[in-house]
Specification:
mainly alpha
Length: about 270
């Protein structure tokens, strides 16, 4: 089989029938999820249609500046999602900038490394390669960072007395926070660990499936998927570690005191 099979609007609408069925189940069982489900689906459709138009224009222009601009917009939305997914987040600009900084450090670094060392398109910043790759790495890194920070802040509040007791006994702040940070890092690493463990046996990843459906040799699709999974795992690890460490430093001070006053009140 060569080439790809074109999909019509009817094909996509038929696939959405199952989503509507889930919304109906939520309504009948009084789960209260039908509104969120339908709004999320509608938002996804609009966003993907707009992204398709924007990417088509960016690909045709082939400008490094437009490529960088789109990457920064993606980074900004990802940072907003990280802040929104935390029940308790850092107060002030820290709640937004810390997640953005951790993702920029990890996802951008790993993406540039892959483009220049493994994939090597010409030019290396080619938007056809850079933006999809950055998007896959960014999305997974965002999930890990948001889970890690949410766990860190929640456990710190819950274990406040234990942490302060260790600080009063003379433990340095990083040592006093080590059990909490360990829980946060485990939480942030769990999605990518589960994804790697299940890939190939339980699930075929979207990128690999898309390549196979478009006629690419499955062996070549496997190579690309392995590359992507290794890059995602590395970027997620760097991002989660950087974000958790930076937040732990922010929630303590140089006098080794716990500063939970730097957290916002929990969401209602």
């Amino acid at each position: 089989m060569t080439g790809y099979i074109a999909l019509s609007a009817t094909d996509i609408a038929l696939a959405a029938v199952f989503l509507l069925f889930n919304a109906g189940l939520s309504l009948s069982l009084q789960l209260g999820l039908e509104r969120k489900l339908l709004i999320s689906a509608a938002r996804m459709v609009v966003q993907l249609l707009l992204v398709g138009l924007v990417l088509k224009s960016v690909f045709s222009l082939g400008s490094p500046w437009f490529t960088l601009l789109i990457a920064l917009v993606m980074l900004g939305f990802a940072a907003r999602e990280i802040a929104a997914r935390q029940n308790r987040q850092l107060a002030g600009t820290w709640g937004y900038s810390l997640g953005a900084g951790a993702m920029m450090m990890s996802a951008a670094l790993v993406t540039v490394f892959a483009l220049t060392a493994q994939i090597r398109p010409d030019p290396w910043w080619s938007p056809q390669f850079a933006l999809p790759l950055f998007g896959m790495i960014l999305g997974n890194t965002m999930t890990g960072i948001s889970l890690g920070l949410d766990t860190l802040h929640g456990v710190l509040v819950r274990e406040q007395r234990g942490v302060e007791a260790r600080l009063l006994l003379g433990a340095p702040r990083m040592q006093a926070l080590r059990p909490v940070m360990r829980d946060a890092l485990r939480s942030g690493f769990t999605p990518i660990i589960n994804a790697m463990a299940a890939t190939g046996v339980v699930s075929l990843p979207g990128m690999m499936t898309g390549q196979i459906l478009s006629g690419v040799d499955p062996r070549e699709a496997v190579k690309y998927q392995l590359l992507i999974m290794f890059l995602i795992g590395g970027a997620t690890g760097l991002g989660v570690l950087g974000a958790v460490l930076a937040s732990a430093l922010r929630l303590t001070d140089a006098r080794h005191r716990l500063r939970l006053d730097r957290l916002r009140a929990p969401r209602s």
